[in-house]
Amino acid sequence: MKEGALLMKYIGSKVLESENLILRPIKEEDLKVIWNILCDIDVAKYYLVGKINYNWDQEKEWQYKKLERALNDDVFQWSIILKTKNEYIGQVSCQSSYDESGNKNNDSIRDVGWFLDSRYQGMGFGTEAAKLMLDYMFYEVGIEKIETCAAIENPASWKIMEKFGFRRLNKTKLIKYTIQTKKTECYCYEITKEKYTKSESKIEYLNLYDNKKNKTNKKIIRGERLNIGDHILIAVVFIKNKDGKYLIQKTSKEKGGLYSSTGGHVLYNETSKDAITRELKEELGIEIKKEKLKYIDDILLGIPFADIYYLEEDIDINKLSLQKEEVDSVSYMSEDEIYNLILQEKMTKSHGLIFMNYFMNIDSSDI
Fold first, then answer.
1. What are 218-252's pLDDT values in tens digits?
2. Separation of alpha carbons 270 and 231, rounded Å
């Protein structure tokens, strides 16, 4: 019995599937494609392997040896297949890890790695593949921990780790990547099953929209880089009381300390009204029926579209329950007070723009 066998299941590289990807064990048809991708310097420069042969006749012997083990129960390595094209675009794996003395760790402490065809980088596929693999390794295989590292100069890799809650350790490591002549400084990361479970529940997915605000069939994790022509959706509400003043919140110091109305990202498969009611509940502790929200218009704010809403409601600010991570304080402000905040650049630019265009000097009956 292998060390760690009591903690994990040796069930091999099962086929995994997400919205855009299929992860499956390596097949013979993948071998030359893998080699072609790794012949791209931009892909291979942060890849660890014994050596890279730029002659297929020399390379294929090693590739076929890897294929012989692909279906073994103790191998956790997948080809990444793009479903829309049935095309191999990369690889992801969860392999044995070693301590700083070079000794093999308990089997339930693993390392991870991935690479993508350069044509498909920056599209969220790396994150999507990593999530499939991490879910499988923690929840089905039952590993306890991942210890890994990533080149400091390769943020595309370590940003994926940070999205999933990996903790960056207070140390770096020098690694000699295969095709580089010098050692590269790397950040060190770790994550336990317990930490991943907590972090995974906080990941927020967003729909993508085209230039005409049509929802596409794609989604991304919040914070991922968007491609040209892709947009996301936010929602903003301005709340006005019977005295003609607007409910304005000051964001927490961690969020910049600026003033704004209430709003946020519209999450995957959520409507903008859903987003408004959720944000009001989370940030201010207010429960508002969606029927009370009046849709005003939408506006393109560069990358995000914003759905704009209006609400007439007398809300007692002394009874609010503020989400301190997001909101420092709340107050009612007149149009002149809000206008002065905008002039002094103390209000979130997008909310200031919306206020000036849709609410400033406009009678409530005209909204």
1. 888 887 778 889 999 999 999 999 999 999 999 99
2. 15
d(C-alpha 174, C-alpha 283), whole Å: 43
Beta strands in 31-165 (DSSP E): 77-82, 87-96, 109-116, 145-151
**In this structure, are residues 115 and 76 in contact, taking their beta carbons and an 8 Å threshold?**
no
Question: pLDDT by residue (tens digit) across 271-303?
Answer: 999 999 999 999 999 999 999 999 999 999 999
* Spatial contact of 161 and 167, defined as CB atoms under 8 Å apart: no
- When computed from its CA atoms, the radius of gyration of the chain, rounded to whole angstroms, is 25
Label residues 231-258 b or e (16+ Cβ within 10 Å = b).
bbbbbbbbbbeeeebbbbbbbbeeeeeb
Specify which residues 24 forms β-bridges with. 79
Give pTM, 2 decimals.
0.67
Q: What is the DSSP string of 261-293?
A: -EEEEPBTT--HHHHHHHHIIIII-----GGGP
The encoded tokens of residue 235 equal 């929602």
